From TrEMBL:
<feature type="domain" description="tRNA intron endonuclease catalytic">
    <location>
        <begin position="231"/>
        <end position="308"/>
    </location>
</feature>
<protein>
    <recommendedName>
        <fullName>tRNA-intron lyase</fullName>
        <ecNumber>4.6.1.16</ecNumber>
    </recommendedName>
</protein>
<keyword id="KW-0540">Nuclease</keyword>
<dbReference type="GO" id="GO:0000214">
    <property type="term" value="C:tRNA-intron endonuclease complex"/>
</dbReference>
<dbReference type="Pfam" id="PF01974">
    <property type="entry name" value="tRNA_int_endo"/>
</dbReference>
<feature type="region of interest" description="Disordered">
    <location>
        <begin position="132"/>
        <end position="180"/>
    </location>
</feature>
<keyword id="KW-0819">tRNA processing</keyword>
<dbReference type="InterPro" id="IPR059049">
    <property type="entry name" value="TSEN34_N"/>
</dbReference>
<dbReference type="GO" id="GO:0000213">
    <property type="term" value="F:tRNA-intron lyase activity"/>
</dbReference>
<dbReference type="InterPro" id="IPR036167">
    <property type="entry name" value="tRNA_intron_Endo_cat-like_sf"/>
</dbReference>
<keyword id="KW-0456">Lyase</keyword>
<dbReference type="InterPro" id="IPR016690">
    <property type="entry name" value="TSEN34"/>
</dbReference>
<feature type="active site">
    <location>
        <position position="259"/>
    </location>
</feature>
<keyword id="KW-0255">Endonuclease</keyword>
<dbReference type="GO" id="GO:0000379">
    <property type="term" value="P:tRNA-type intron splice site recognition and cleavage"/>
</dbReference>
<feature type="domain" description="TSEN34 N-terminal">
    <location>
        <begin position="14"/>
        <end position="80"/>
    </location>
</feature>
<comment type="similarity">
    <text>Belongs to the tRNA-intron endonuclease family.</text>
</comment>
Length: 324
């Protein structure tokens, strides 16, 4: 793939160092990293609406140190540490969070109760027909309920004009029905209660609402620190600058997975393995890498650095031909 420059950044993104891990807490920043900077990371957070599964995760997003290294080197991001999170929350902090959660609960209650009222009004005809039939000791079928709803809609469009006495009697019955209808609907609306807390969502905060700018201090990455780290960073940077998307390849026994485009649209086509320039590669290792790549339908790319130049060697298993 030809060399492509990343899309110009619109703002300096914030990365947070927490217990040796580099995290992105802001969802907008995570989207900018993917769309503008080809950095995908890995989401490790729990979804509030689906907490008992791990097939789909949410914020925060965990970055590889190589990803953070490239972002910091290119000036696309800054690394911070939240000093407030290093201390035990005070009583005032706990009270603030408690009030914050209570406010969210009240907002959800209002929204859920309003939704329930709208449902009652939307299905008012069916509810009234069923209640009136129940008061008369009848259990109307679905067909009868539909018929009653149609008749109620056609009361103002009757084709036959009744006699005066019939009109008086019909008007009286209509008024009674209308009174019953309003009373029934009002009783149903009065049944709408505040939902219990276990039926409402408790949002998972991705940013501390108490954090102030003064709580954030810029910190160094202190990476790479070893020869292998430097090779990994150099290889990652070279492939990233050439327009590739990369992610962690630990589950395949490699260093990086190589994508031709956004991983949401493309499968990985290569496994990058970083080696030191003086490291010997035995025939057994070459065969092992070749067969691994064949079993997962990916090309194994061996990468090393010599005099700041990145060198690559791809291995692909030839199958029945009996050689690499």
């Amino acid at each position: 793939m030809g060399t492509t420059e990343p899309v110009a950044k619109t703002k300096t993104l914030r990365l947070f160092l927490q217990k040796g891990q580099i995290l992105v807490w802001n969802a907008d920043d995570a989207n900018i990293l993917r769309t503008n900077h080809k950095i995908v990371g890995f989401q490790i957070g729990c979804l509030p609406q689906s907490p008992f599964q791990n097939g789909c995760l949410g914020m925060p997003m965990l970055l590889m140190k190589e990803e953070a290294y490239v972002l910091l080197k290119k000036g696309a991001a800054k690394l911070f540490r939240n000093k407030r999170l290093l201390h035990t929350p005070s009583d005032c902090d706990k009270e603030y969070i408690k009030k914050y959660q209570e406010g969210i609960y009240q907002e959800q209650c209002e929204a859920l109760m309003q939704r329930r009222r709208e449902e009652i009004l939307r299905h008012a005809d069916s509810i009234v027909a069923g209640k009136l039939a129940k008061l008369k000791g009848e259990t109307p079928s679905k067909k009868k309920r539909k018929k009653a709803m149609k008749q109620a809609a056609r009361t103002d469009r009757a084709e036959d004009y009744p006699q005066a006495s019939d009109q008086t009697e019909s008007t009286s019955k209509t008024e009674e029905t209308e009174i019953d209808r309003e009373a029934i609907i009002q009783r149903e609306l009065n049944k709408v209660k505040v939902p219990p807390r276990d039926l409402t969502y408790t949002p998972i905060l991705t940013e501390c609402p108490l954090t102030k700018e003064s709580d954030l201090e810029a910190v160094p990455l202190n990476f790479p620190s070893t020869a292998r780290d430097r090779i990994r960073c150099r290889v990652f940077e070279d492939l990233w600058e050439k327009g590739h998307f990369l992610s962690c390849a630990a589950k395949f026994g490699g260093d990086f997975l190589l994508y031709a485009g956004n991983p949401l649209r493309y499968h990985a086509y290569g496994i990058v393995v970083c080696l030191e320039s003086d490291q010997e590669l035995s025939g057994l290792a070459a065969v092992s890498w070749g067969r691994l790549g064949n079993s997962v339908h990916k090309t194994v790319v061996l990468a090393t650095v010599e005099e700041d130049a990145v060198l690559y060697l791809s291995i692909r298993w030839a199958g029945d031909q009996g050689h690499l």
